């Protein structure tokens, strides 16, 4: 199937306006077959000659194909030779679109009385793979800045934006208790971008039940979010309680078990002592 395309600019219905050589912009999807309309899709005149060409990176022009009546000739001698075709309405088809196709394409329509030219700047976008969290911390220490994990959104164009949430609320970098470091790397072969966001977080006892997640935002939407994750928070004992284990009222000579417990995490070893009751 052909990918959905979006045009920037008004849709021109009058053939008299087609002689303008303004530059439109459209977006196609990476890996799909992109259809680039000739003269913005307006029905072409009969008995015409159509030629498609493109602007090369070095500034020169490259020929793609020509169509006259029912005959089509592929002129491209490069990568486009096996990837381009033309529709009955003279739209250019580009199969297996990649970032190398982000160029300006020109459609020339030759009629008995005029030459109509239209130019389209093609952008190729790709949504990132669903984000994943790597290098997840095993636990967090109360009051200590710790790397919670890295959120990775792979292979996008343009690069995805990655954000973090705590209990569904956005986390903001304050440079002290929350530090978020994004890094974008471009694959030299495909040109696609991978965004990695590292979250350093200072946990407190209140974070024992907190749910952390990251999401990737992209122009192709909707946002993609990881499953929420929680952490064990280590914190020292602040309160100590003493429990007395007895059966019935105490009297002199009875054995009494005393147990000392703290509220830290992980819980400190319980200390138990048995003694005889005295007056």
Describe it.
It comes from Conger conger. This is Ig-like domain-containing protein. Keywords: Disulfide bond, Signal. InterPro entries: CD80_C2-set, Ig-like_dom, Ig-like_dom_sf, Ig-like_fold. This protein is mostly beta strands. The chain contains no helices and 23 strands. The strands form six sheets. The chain has a seven-stranded mixed beta sheet, with no helix packed on it. It has a four-stranded antiparallel beta sheet with strand order 11-13-17-16, with no helix packed on it. The radius of gyration is 33 Å and the shape is rod-shaped. It starts with 5 loop residues before the first strand and ends with a strand.
């Amino acid at each position: 199937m052909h990918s959905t395309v979006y045009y920037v600019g008004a849709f021109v219905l009058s053939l008299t306006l087609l002689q303008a050589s303004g530059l439109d912009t459209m977006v196609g999807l990476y890996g799909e077959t992109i259809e680039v309309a000739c003269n913005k899709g307006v029905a072409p005149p009969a008995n015409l000659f159509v030629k498609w060409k493109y602007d090369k990176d070095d500034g020169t022009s490259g020929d793609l194909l020509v169509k006259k009546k029912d005959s089509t000739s592929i002129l491209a001698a490069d990568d486009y030779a096996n990837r381009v075709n033309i529709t009955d309405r003279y739209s250019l088809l580009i199969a297996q679109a990649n970032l190398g196709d982000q160029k300006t394409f020109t459609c020339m329509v030759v009629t008995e009385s005029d030459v109509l030219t239209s130019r389209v700047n093609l952008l190729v976008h790709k949504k990132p793979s669903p984000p994943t969290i790597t290098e997840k911390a095993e636990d967090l220490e109360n009051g200590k800045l710790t790397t919670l994990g890295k959120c990775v959104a792979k292979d996008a164009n343009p690069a995805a934006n990655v954000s973090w949430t705590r209990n569904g609320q956005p986390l903001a970098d304050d440079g002290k208790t929350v530090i978020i470091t994004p890094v974008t790397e471009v694959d030299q072969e495909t040109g696609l971008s991978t965004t990695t966001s590292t979250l350093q977080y200072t946990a407190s006892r209140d974070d024992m039940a907190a749910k952390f997640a990251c999401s990737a935002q992209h122009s192709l939407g909707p946002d993609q979010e990881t499953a929420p994750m929680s952490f064990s928070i280590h914190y020292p004992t602040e309160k100590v309680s003493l429990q007395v284990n007895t059966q019935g009222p105490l009297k002199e000579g009875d054995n009494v078990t005393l147990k000392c417990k703290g509220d830290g995490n992980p819980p400190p070893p319980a200390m138990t002592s048995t003694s005889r009751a005295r007056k």
